[in-house]
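Structure tokens please, single chain.
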Amino acid sequence: MKTLVATLIGPDKTGLVKQLAALIKQHHGSWQGSAMSELAGYFAGIVEIRVPEEHSEALCQALTRLPDFQVQLVEGKAVPPQGQHLTLTVTANDRLGIIDEVTDVLNQLNISVKTLKTDSHPAPVTGIMLFEAKSTLILPHGQTLGDLQARLEALSDDLVVDIEPT
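Here you go.
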């Protein structure tokens, strides 16, 4: 078996995920994991696919021929990082640089970001724009939740940090 990682971006329209799923199935591939979003009228996705070696070239060719899409393919590696899995949610008044500051702390502590989803929206009562980031992290052996929490909370008085082991 071969593991492929496909990234796709193109104009959003109904049925794109179905089209992709059918194409993968048609070429004997197995959909392993994905992250997909509609952003500003575009569909953006990344998909991990396992496919028998003898069908991988045909699948790669079919994926790169998807109309209206930019597709990049790489061969994946199965090397799971070691450590404790966490879910981190950070909420703050929206301002420039929040993700840069948070990821700087994560980098200093050698914490791996497995997933990251962000959003900005008005607060229910005040209407002030809020920024929220939710991520799955891998805390390496030797690092503590308390140290991570303290360092993140030290970034700003309005930063709300919630960390849950998964």
